[in-house]
Write a structure and sequence with these properties.
Mean pLDDT of chain B: 77
Low-confidence stretches of chain A: none
CATH class of the largest domain in chain A: Alpha Beta
Largest sheet of chain B: 6 strands, antiparallel
Number of strands of chain A: 10
Largest sheet of chain A: 7 strands, mixed
Shape of chain A: globular
Helix content of chain B: 55-70%
Radius of gyration of chain A: 20 Å
Structural class of chain B: alpha/beta
Strand order of the largest sheet of chain A: 6-2-1-7-8-10-9
Distance between the termini of chain A: 51 Å
Low-confidence stretches of chain B: 347-353, 746-771, 1028-1048
Distance between the termini of chain B: 139 Å
CATH topology of the largest domain in chain A: Rossmann fold
Oligomer: heterodimer
């Protein structure tokens, strides 16, 4: 691609993002540039447009196009008990402290297809906390949210799930938590009962609830520094005193403004706690 | 023939009778038609005439003309009728027509008379009318009567005539009929005799025969077949019938047995079955004794015996024939039946008939053929000859059996094929299944592939994003490195610049010092002479002043000299003047020089030299003297007791000297050890810097310029050695001068160490505490006081004024010692402390303040030209402000001291807990936190403590109290208006949502007991103990703000807050309650609806959107469904800020929309608008 073509493409993308932000209110302009560019191009190809500019009239005039756009621009990847050591650490380090709260709210920001929400529900169930816990699992991708709410997952990764579950400190049998048939597993209703799946946009929306723990893993890697700072501030406001923040294993607070308002509980596993100003 | 005559006669008879009848009938008709009609009509006419007469009579009697008209009309009618009757008579009358005409004319006449009479009557001329009638009417009437009688008479006569004619005709007919009957009877008799004789006899015989035939007896003989009579023809016909019946019988027999055979054959399931059935059925029918059935065996290529009849042993019969072999083979080959008859009794067995020893009379071999193909052969042996029916049967049975055989074979074949097909189908299905499974697998694999591709894409995406972030980080690092590099270069550059500047400065100083020394010299001399008061004209005071001038001048001179030396070294102007130094003489000179000085201070002074030293070495004796001078003077200066020892030796601590870069074997160490105040370890590195002393007050206390050590080290380094130091604070110091035994080449200027320009010497007037004007005499215990320890009176005054303005009373101290004493005496609220202080510097004052229990809680804020931020805070100060400071900074410091002062009062915690073990545990937990704990083991007792007005910073509440539930206890405290400190609930049991909700009205700090709970309890309690206003929970701050705006909104309104988030709900409810509003709360949509039902008098609803269960949108829709809530103001509160969210809220029924975090003033304004409207 010539330099000129690349410039044109960049212009197109920024116009598209502008349209998306101004017309639909979804502001992707502070997402990490390169990865967003790839996803916009993938979206262009997927909906059969010849170039990015053609997306613009569609995003403005087509009613149901937004869903498709959001679905393509977000990256709903997750798995059950992803990074098992994190879940082990949650059991060992965080859960004992959560026990001291009468009611527990957990916010899963960027829940994708919901695997993590169910994993967390299983963990809390085994730790005897699920009954007094409300899990809020949010995402901007309605398609993924619907999948998450259905709680149906292909069973081909079952072996991986079970291994992760065990490595994450699972105390029972993973199969206790789902029904399998036709190559799929359906998560038990008793888990779903304490999960609210809802639409929430980290870019624009605010605090909706006081929470004791926030999990937001592998979401902020797609954000630029400015947006990361905004989100971390939002998390700080949402968390109760001493509440826990759990980030993805490639994310850190080191380069953000937020390093002053969180203390590190486990640098390796990216578990942090809300710090009180002046009491760091 | 006879019959024909009979019929003819009868017909003639009939004809005669008919003709007679006809004649009679005509006559009768004539009687009726003529006579009857005529008589009847005439009688009618007579009647008419009579009535006309009657009317005529009445006419003559009537009175009025109207009656005349009525009678006239009736007369006219009667007249018309009479004429009509007479006309009828005229048509049929056969007599004289004149009779009728005359009657009619007479009638005409009568009519004319009548007309006249009528006319007369109309005119009233009755008499004339009567006369008219009598004269003219009567004769006319008489004529009519006459004629009528004539006519009737004629008719009657004619009738009699006719009747006589009829009687004659009847007589004639009777004679004819009697004759005919006689003829008929004679003919009949003749015919009867002829018939009986020719027909009835033979017919009876024939009838018997036919009856027999009908009964099935075909053997009867039919007679009378010869001849041409009807009977013989009938007999011939019977014969034909008989023959036909016989043939039918035979065919029936054949058909019946064939049908039966067919049925039996169809039942056969196998070939052997079929053959056996066939032969067993056929042989008896053919009256045979034996029978065999051969079927073509494809495998053996022979005709094989498959069924037998009357075959008792295998030997009886041949089991198989080759094609063409024997009768069987031949029959099969030829395809034609073979019948052997009249076999002789001794017929040899050469004829392989297959029969045993009994020789049958006849043998019939029949091939079974279908479509020119022989499928089997049947051989039947019988003793008698075969009848035609039997042969027919066998002929017809053969194809049937063949067909059945073939069908069976075909069936078998089909079955085999079917089996095969089924097997193949089965196989096909199996392979299909397999295929499908494979395809399923394939599809699954495909899907998996696609999914994993998708996942891979996503993961790649993620990875790439990560990489990009890493790249970004790396780039940032690079940039930082670059910046660092630039900074380093800049630093290098600066260093160079500084070095240059430093050299310039040193040169300048070196020159200046000389320039200064000259006038100073004269100043000193003159001051000295003034002090001596040689002329005796000065007061003692003036002499003192002069002495001060002299002392100061001397000090200034020393300072100048030192600076000069320092700048000389730094400016590179120093030269080494090397000479041989005798060790003996050198030690002696040191001893001589300092002994007296030390002894004057009561210190011991020893100088010794190690034995292994060389007797002499080369160095710059002057500079070594200068260094030692400095070191030893210092040692004496800083030592109050003990002694000083100087020792010459080879360097001992090889490692230490290695740093200097000396060849240790060629070096000399001169060690100066004292037992003085020592140097804090963290200050060791700083003492060699220019104008540094361990303690800012040292220069004042011990004199000196602070440059000595700096100059010493520079000189030592200049000589190729160094000065090292080790010290234990309070025990003494050891300075070691290390020198090479031969001087190194003169090094150029000092490289790294270039002392900063000294700050202008501080004006250091000694301000005695007593001279300070402060508030110590007007203090009351309630006053908040600030102690200012500052040696600059002007600055002290400034702080003092500001403090007074802020309501403090002030205490002033000009030096550290005074400051300490004042602090102990008055225990001020806070202390402002300078660092550089006379007598006792700020650091020391701080340490001592913190050591003393009575002053340790007093907050201290440093305010100094020194830059000692970290150190000040380390010592426990609340802050450090570096001079120069602005007025604002000072005010900030004062405020901080005030708040810290409050916070630093011992914190008091009220522990409400019935379990002594837990009380002990919590007490232990909080120990060392400067906390005073009051314990209460029951709710009542705790309340009592609160009622007594005890001030607590925090309350730890167990929910399971023996006398009252925790929640209720809190409610009661609120009702009693007891001031509750921040509450931390410490509960042993899990709480229900409702309980949590109820508790949250009082606190958001709830700790459930458990493994890690103490940790959190400590956190929560500590938080409250340290909280100042800016750290108040959001809710309290909001409450405060709301209080400030209390006047604005009218109270009494009821607001329903629907929010699952307790933090929000309570913050809001606190604010709103503070505004005088009644607040109801609901945790979710269901509860909100229930609340609305129970308390319909809600003026406004604040609705959170994201709630578990029924969310805000749904709840609003539900509310709007009730007609009475159609106009209820609902304000939706949501975290969502997307453009579409507002519309969604409004659509769901919200009146207004606000995004979180809620701007409380805006919310209140909005509510005001909505509720007022």
């Amino acid at each position: 691609m010539t330099r000129q073509a690349a410039d044109v493409q960049e212009l197109e993308i920024s116009l598209f993002l502008e349209a998306l932000a101004r017309h639909q209110g979804y502001d992707f302009r502070h997402y990490a540039k390169a990865s967003l560019r790839r996803r916009v191009l993938a979206l262009t190809a997927a909906v059969g447009c010849r170039n990015v500019s053609e997306l613009i009239p569609r995003v403005i005039h087509e009613e149901n196009f937004l869903r498709q756009v959001l679905s393509h621009l977000s990256v709903p990847v997750s798995e059950f008990f992803r990074d098992p050591p994190v879940f082990r650490a949650l059991r060992e380090t965080v859960v004992p402290l959560l026990h001291s709260y009468p009611r527990i709210n957990v916010w899963l920001a960027g829940c994708a297809n919901g695997e993590e929400a169910y994993s967390l529900a299983i963990l809390l169930r085994e730790e005897g906390l699920l009954e007094r816990t409300q899990i809020y699992a949010t995402d901007i991708n309605d398609v993924a949210l619907q999948k998450a709410e259905d709680g149906i997952f292909p069973s081909r990764d079952l072996a991986d799930m079970e291994r992760n579950y065990r490595e994450g400190g699972g105390k029972a049998d993973f199969s206790d938590y789902y029904n399998a048939s036709y190559g799929f597993i359906r998560m038990a209703d008793s888990l779903r009962k304490n999960i609210v799946f809802a639409h929430h946009n980290l870019v624009s929306d605010g605090v909706f609830c006081e929470v004791q723990m926030i999990m937001c893993r592998n979401v902020m890697i797609y954000f630029d520094e400015q947006l990361q700072n905004r989100v971390l501030k939002l998390f700080h406001e949402s968390l109760t005193r001493g509440g826990f923040l759990c980030l993805g294993n490639r994310e850190s607070l080191r380069h953000t403004d937020a390093r002053a308002i969180f203390t590190t509980l486990d640098q390796e596993l990216r578990i942090f706690r809300r710090a009180e100003e002046g009491r760091v | 023939m006879g019959f024909a005559v009979l019929i003819l006669v009868t017909m003639v008879m009939g004809a005669l009778a008919l003709r007679t009848l006809s004649v009679m009938s005509t006559l009768t008709d004539e009687i009726f038609d003529h006579s009857m009609t005529v008589i009847d009509e005439v009688q009618q006419a007579r009647l008419g005439v009579a009535r006309m007469y009657g009317e005529g009579q009445r006419l003559l009697q009537v009175l009025g003309p109207e009656d005349v008209e009525g009678i006239a009309a009736r007369l006219a009618e009667l007249d018309r009728q009479t004429v009509a009757h007479l006309e009828n008579v005229r048509r049929v009358y056969q007599g004289n027509p004149q009779d009728v005409t005359e009657a009619l004319l007479a009638l005409d006449e009568r009519r004319r008379v009548r007309q006249v009479s009528l006319q007369l009557m109309r005119e009233g001329r009755r008499e004339e009318a009567v006369a008219n009638v009598l004269n003219h009417g009567m004769p006319a009437e008489a004529v009519v009567e006459q004629k009528v009688v004539d006519i009737v008479t004629f008719a009657r006569d004619m009738a009699w005539e006719k009747r006589a004619a009829a009687n004659a005709a009847r007589q004639e007919a009777f004679l004819h009929v009697v004759g005919a009957l006689l003829v008929l009877t004679l003919l009949g008799l003749f015919l009867a005799v002829a018939i009986t004789r020719g027909i009835v006899g033979p017919l009876g015989i024939l009838r018997h025969r036919m009856q027999a035939l009908a009964a099935g007896d075909l053997s009867i003989e039919v007679p009378f077949r010869e001849g041409r009579s009807e009977v013989s023809m009938m007999a011939r016909a019977v014969q034909v019938l008989k023959d036909a019946a016989g043939r039918l019988e035979g065919q029936h027999w054949v058909k019946a047995h064939l049908a039966q055979l067919g049925k039996l054959l169809q039942q056969a399931a196998t070939r052997r079955d079929l053959c056996q059935t066939a032969i067993e059925t056929l042989v008896p029918l053919l009256k045979g004794g034996v029978g065999a059935f051969y079927v073509w065996d494809e495998d053996g290529k022979v005709w094989r015996l498959t069924g037998g009849y009357g075959v008792t042993a295998a030997l009886d019969i041949r089991a198989a024939f080759a094609p063409g072999e024997g009768l069987v083979g031949q029959a099969a080959l030829g395809g034609k039946p073979i019948l052997l008859t009249d076999l002789p009794g001794d017929y040899p067995r050469r004829i392989n008939s297959g029969m045993g020893d009994a020789v049958p009379g006849q043998v019939l071999v029949v091939p079974l053929m279908t479509k020119d193909k022989v499928v089997g052969v049947i051989e039947i042996g019988a003793f008698g000859p075969f009848t035609a029916e039997q042969q027919a049967l066998i002929e017809e049975a053969a194809p049937l059996i063949a067909l059945n055989l073939e069908i069976l074979e075909r069936n078998e074949h089909t079955r085999l094929l079917l089996d095969q097909t089924q097997k193949q189908a089965e196989e096909l299905r199996a392979s299909e299944e397999e295929l499908r499974a494979q395809s399923d697998q394939l599809q699954a694999a495909n899907e998996e592939l696609r999914a994993s591709e998708e996942e891979l894409r996503a993961q790649r995406e993620e990875l790439q994003a990560t990489n990009e972030e890493l790249e970004e980080k790396a780039r940032q690092m690079d940039e930082q490195a670059k910046i660092l590099e630039i900074a380093r270069m800049e630093a290098d550059h600066r260093a160079l610049e500084r070095e240059t500047a430093s050299r310039y400065k040193s040169e300048f100083l070196a020159n200046m010092s000389h320039e200064l020394r000259t006038p100073l010299n004269s100043l000193l001399i003159l001051a000295r002479s003034l002090a001596d008061n040689e002329e005796g004209n000065l007061s003692a005071d003036q002499v003192d002043s002069a002495r001060v001038i002299e002392e100061s001048g001397t000090h200034l001179l020393r300072l100048l000299n030192d600076i000069l030396d320092l700048s000389k070294v730094e400016a590179g102007k120093m030269e080494i003047v090397a000479s041989a130094i005798e060790q003996e003489e050198f030690t002696e000179s040191i001893r001589r020089r300092f002994r007296r000085l030390a002894e004057a201070k009561g210190l011991t002074f020893t100088v010794e030299a190690a034995a292994d030293l060389p007797a002499a070495w080369r160095s710059d004796r002057g500079k070594i003297d200068q260094i030692l001078n400095n070191l030893v003077s210092n040692a004496i200066k800083f030592t109050e007791s003990g002694g000083i020892s100087v020792r010459l030796e080879r360097p001992r601590d090889v490692a230490a000297f290695a740093i200097v870069g000396l060849d240790v074997t060629e070096a000399l160490a001169i060690e100066v050890a004292d037992s003085g105040i020592g140097i804090p370890s963290d200050q060791l590195s700083r003492i060699f810097e220019a104008f540094e002393q361990v303690d800012g007050s040292a220069s004042r206390r011990y004199g000196g310029t602070g440059l000595g050590l700096s100059i010493s080290r520079k000189l030592a380094r200049f000589l190729g050695g160094d000065v090292l130091v080790s010290s234990v604070e309070g025990e003494g110091s050891v300075f070691t001068l290390v020198l090479p035994l031969t001087p190194a080449l003169p090094v150029p200027a000092e490289q790294a160490e270039s002392p900063a320009l000294p700050p202008p010497p501080k004006p250091a007037p000694f301000l005695s505490p007593q001279t300070q004007e402060d508030d110590r005499d007007t203090l009351t215990p309630q006053d908040e006081t600030i102690l200012v320890i500052e040696d600059d009176p002007a600055f002290a005054r400034i702080i003092c004024d500001l403090a007074r303005k802020r309501g403090f009373k002030c205490l002033l101290a000009g030096d550290g010692m005074a400051g300490l004493e004042l602090a102990k005496t008055y225990r001020p609220t806070g202390i402002v402390l300078d660092v550089g202080l006379p007598r006792l510097d700020g650091w020391t004052v701080m340490e001592r303040l913190k050591q003393a229990p009575e002053t340790r809680h007093i907050p201290v804020h440093f305010m100094s030209a020194h830059d000692g931020d970290g150190r000040g805070l380390d010592l426990g100060a609340v802050g450090f402000a570096t001079k120069p400071v602005s007025r604002e900074v000072i005010e900030g410091v004062l405020d901080r001291l005030r708040h810290s002062g409050k916070a630093s009062e011992p914190r008091r915690v009220l522990l409400v807990e019935d379990d002594p073990a837990t009380r002990k545990a919590v007490t232990t937990l909080l120990r060392g936190r400067e906390v005073e704990i009051s314990e209460a083991d029951s709710g009542e007792k705790a309340m009592e403590l609160l009622r007594q007005g005890g001030r607590y910073d925090c309350l730890i509440l167990d929910l399971g109290l023996p006398d009252i539930d925790g929640v209720e206890w809190l409610d009661r405290c609120v009702r009693e208006n007891l001031t509750l400190p921040p509450v931390v609930v410490y509960s042993a049991r899990d709480l229900t949502a409702a309980e949590t909700l109820a508790l949250r009205e009082h606190t958001d700090s709830i700790v459930i007991k458990g493994g890690r709970a103490p940790e959190r309890l400590l956190d929560e309690v500590t938080l409250f103990l340290h909280s100042v206003q800016s750290h108040l929970p959001e809710g309290q701050q909001m409450a405060l703000r709301a209080q400030q705006a209390k006047q604005e909104v009218g109270s009494g309104c009821t607001v329903l807050v629907v929010d699952d988030d307790m933090r929000n709900a309570f913050a809001l409810s606190k604010v709103l309650r503070a505004k005088g509003l009644k607040v109801l709360m609901a945790q979710d949509g269901q509860k909100a609806l229930a609340q609305l039902d129970e308390a319909p008098q809600v003026d406004c609803v604040l609705m959170d959107i994201m709630m578990p269960g029924m969310d805000g949108y749904q709840t609003m829709r539900e509310i709007r469904r009730h007609p009475r809530f159609k106009t209820l103001p609902i304000i939706a509160l949501t975290a969502k800020a997307m453009p579409g969210d507002r519309d969604k809220c409004i659509q769901a029924g919200a009146t207004e929309y606000m995004s979180k975090p809620v701007e409380i003033d805006a919310l209140l304004a909005l509510m005001r608008n909505l509720v007022m409207a």
